[in-house]
Amino acid sequence: MKVILTEKITRLGNIGDTVEVKTGYARNFLLPNNKALRWSRENVALFEAQKAELQARHEAAKKSAESKVDAVKNAKMYMIRQAGDTGQLYGSVSSRDIARTLKEIAGVDVSSAQVMLGAPIKSIGAFDTKIALHPDVIVPIKIYVARTNDEIEALVAGKVLTFGTKKVEEEPEAKEETKEETKAETETAETTEEAAPAEEVAE
Q: Rounded to the nearest 5 degrees, what angle is found at the Cα of 155, between the Cα atoms of 150 and 106?
């Protein structure tokens, strides 16, 4: 579907651009949210009449977004989640979770669509993402996901958490001990066998 953008859309175009988009995207997102007009000669004229107002609105939204940059940068995005011994989460951390946390701890209201996460987070660790407060105001943030506050502190300090290694480290030691015990038993048995004929000769 051909539409006229009434505001700048990241990776799509600027105000006034005529672009081709999927029909579903236009009908479900762009048109109902007043981000675009269906292309027609009448709407082209309508846009030209409203262009100055739309550009002024765009600049006002940009300034509002810029005023929230520090709050987003300073937000401590610590997510406590349950996870298994391998560090895999029981569930995931989604864009919606990040948007909700940002509002709770920083008072910045964003939609999940403004969280440029990509795939949900499914393991413990530190992850980089971005918040698009405005198409021209994109703020990088780091998300810390762990099972406890101690693990969060370790991640913030730059430490790499390891999982499922304790058992693996202990097993070789146990195997070495078993080898030593087997060797000792074998040597004792050999000594006993060698000693027996000597006693018979003595008799």
A: 90
Q: Is 133 exposed, middle or buried (0-12, 13-18, 19+ CB in 10 A)?
A: buried
14 CB neighbour count, 10 Å cutoff: 13
Query: How many structural domains is the chain composed of?
Result: 2
Environment class of 58 (CB within 10 Å of its CB; exposed 0-12, middle 13-18, buried 19+): middle
What are 32-48's pLDDT values in tens digits? 999 999 999 999 999 99
Helix (H) or strand (E) holding 6: none
Look up the pTM and report it: 0.71
**Residue range(s) defining the domain that contains residue 35:** 2-64
**Shortest CA distance to 114 belongs to which of 57, 71, 72, 74?**
72
